[in-house]
Amino acid sequence: MYDKIIPPTSGTKITFKNGEPIVPDNPIIPFIRGDGTGIDIWPATQKVLDAAVAQAYKGQRQISWFKVYAGDEACDLYGTYQYLPQDTLTAIKEYGVAIKGPLTTPVGGGIRSLNVALRQIFDLYACVRPCRYYAGTPSPHKNPEKLDVIVYRENTEDIYLGIEWKQGSEIGDRLIKILNEELIPATPEHGKKQIPLDAGIGIKPISKSGSQRLVRRAIKHALQLPKHKQQVTLVHKGNIMKYTEGAFRDWGYELATTEFRQECVTERESWILSNKEKNSEISPEDNARQIDPGYDALTQEKKAQIVKEVETVLNSIWHSHGNGQWKDKIMVNDRIADSIFQQIQTRPDEYSILATMNLNGDYLSDAAAAIVGGLGMGPGANIGDACAVFEATHGTAPKHAGLDKINPGSVILSGVMMLEYMGWQEAADLVKHGLGQAIANSQVTYDLARLLEPPVEPLKCSEFAEAIIQHFV
Ligand SMILES: NC(=O)C1=CN([C@@H]2O[C@H](COP(=O)(O)OP(=O)(O)OC[C@H]3O[C@@H](n4cnc5c(N)ncnc54)[C@H](OP(=O)(O)O)[C@@H]3O)[C@@H](O)[C@H]2O)C=CC1
Ligand SMILES: O=C(O)CCC(=O)C(=O)O
Ligand SMILES: [Mg+2]
Questions:
Q1: Which candidate, 21, 41, 16, 20, places its Cα nearest to that of 31?
Q2: Distance CA 221, CA 232 (A)
Q3: Separation between Cα atoms, residue 414 and residue 130, nearest integer Å
Q4: What is the ipTM of this complex?
Q5: Where is the Isopropylmalate dehydrogenase-like domain positioned along the sequence (predicted)?
Q6: Cis peptide before 454, with omega less than 30 degrees from 0?
Q7: How far is the CA of 348 from the centre of ligand 1 (A)?
Q8: Whose CA is nearest to atom 8 of ligand 2?
């Protein structure tokens, strides 16, 4: 079955039923060490996770790690350009749950991202990146503890599908010609627009099915959160990209108000309902005027549309959502992407789950991690219906590689997400507690040490892992 790797002799595999993992007490879990700082981070992570499982379950449970290869390490073992060997894909498919360090992607040319490839190959459509604050972590923000968000990033499509043509390539030039001469002129709304002849071209597909399965997972997650965090914000740039990002928003609302009708209320619905609650005699026109500030300047047609929206909401959900019942539902709202970048800084406590497309989610997860302490504190998971691969938000940080210096916190916390996904909550809690205590005691790596006031002597990557373990109890 495998060419160059051998699975552990003890342990069994995790299986899946209805998208949920069924986890034995001794699961085999493949891991990819990763390029660059992976060499420092992975051993630290493995040590912490093993110690937590040992302490939590006293030998009743343990992970059998299965080393698999990707990136530079894979080329060393399998040969030139063998960045993602079949052995690795077979192992992840077979064992279902894996964890990885970061992998290098060259800019401009060369191989396409191995990280993205893994997400696409295993259809890991939800990239889940929680950003929460651990007390004592230095932050550029005055109240970083107010940020507690989970980025839910669509992980398989958008421009990350990687369908693009280089400037001057034969197919790229043909495509531009067809677009300029046939398809754009045939679309009246595009007027006389033309694509520059010296352009590179990329394709941005956003599908209804892809958008809705991501939003579905985000809403199901919101249902598990404490009441005050039960909110899903659809983040998009739909004012500019109407049929891709705008459609994502519309499909998200459609899903929330059909599949989750009893559980969800949209922000606009909540305004309509609360206007009626404040004044039971309010006319649909006045209600429309209050939810749309520019109402009086609108065309008759647009006004009629909003009045109809008000009437439809009141007729269809007043009985189930009115009289304040909507306050117990999941709030689904939307924000334009550029705005949400300032909102998470100025009004962080107003947000919970941020569901968005691939590129927005990539940017947003680094930005949110910065608020709670930087990329050393940004865990993540790539989740599908029959597989999950856990990995940090950050990359290989090559300048720090091999120095036993980098913060392993993000991969360790990705391991915590993995333990929680497996239902091993006791072990996950030990790690979170240990990490929180280490930070609270200013036992931190260089990235956090330099921001503390006064600065403290940094721990090495491996020493930070030790400190976490010492703080388990
Ligand atoms: N999922 C993945 O595997 C990902 C891979 N990549 C790839 O990684 C490579 C390098 O990307 P780059 O843009 O430099 O981004 P990186 O995230 O690798 O690093 C950028 C900077 O972020 C800080 N940082 C990163 N990781 C940590 C950590 N664990 N602890 C503390 N600080 C950290 C460091 O800042 P400072 O030096 O200021 O301390 C580092 O120089 C690229 O090839 C990229 O494609 C990128 C993102 C994700
Ligand atoms: O794959 C890469 O090299 C970068 C991916 C990335 O930045 C991310 O997934 O956050
Ligand atoms: Mg990124």
A1: 41
A2: 9
A3: 10
A4: 0.99
A5: 28-468
A6: yes
A7: 24
A8: 362
Residue 20 CB coordination number (10 Å): 11
Please state, in angstroms and rounded to a whole number, the distance separating the CA atoms of residues 186 and 251. Answer: 27
**Residue 443: CB partners within 8 Å, gap ≥ 6?**
459, 463, 464, 467
> Long-range contacts made by residues 465-470, C-beta under 8 angstroms, separation at least 24?
465/44, 465/45, 465/47, 465/48, 465/408, 465/412, 466/47, 467/434, 467/438, 467/441, 467/443, 468/48, 468/412, 468/431, 468/434, 468/435, 468/438, 469/47, 469/48, 469/51, 469/52, 469/434, 470/434, 470/438
Cβ–Cβ under 8 Å, residues 307 and 319: no
User: Mean pLDDT over residues 148-168, rounded?
Assistant: 97
Structure tokens at 404: 């036993």
Q: Hey, what amino acid is at 186?
A: A
Assess contact for 424 and 54: CB atoms under 8 A: no
Q: Catalytic one among 100, 204, 237, 329? A: 237
- Res 2 pLDDT > 90: yes
For the chain, what is the mean pLDDT?
97
Furthest-apart CA pair in the chain: how many Å? 76
DSSP 96-158: -EEEE------SSSSSPPHHHHHHHHTT--EEEEEEEPPTT---SSS-GGG-EEEEEEE-S-G
Do 396 and 384 touch, CB atoms closer than 8 A?
no
With beta carbons less than 8 A apart as the criterion, state whether 317 and 260 touch. no
CB of 220 closer than 8 Å to CB of 385: no
Angle at 393 between CA 88 and CA 213, to 5 degrees: 75
Closest ligand 2 atom to residue 391 Cα is 9
Alpha helices in 193-321 (DSSP H): 208-224, 247-256, 267-278, 284-291, 300-321
User: 């006031």: which residue's tokens?
Assistant: 453
Residue for token pair 């010296």:
198
By three-state DSSP, how is residue 204 classified? coil
Between the CA of 315 and the centroid of ligand 1 the distance, in Å, is 52
CA–CA dist 59, 54 (Å, integer):
6
pLDDT in tens, 14-71: 999 998 999 999 999 999 999 999 999 999 999 999 999 999 999 999 999 999 999 9
CA of 297 to the centre of ligand 3 (A): 43
**3-class state of residue 263 by DSSP:** coil
d(CA 204, CA 34): 29
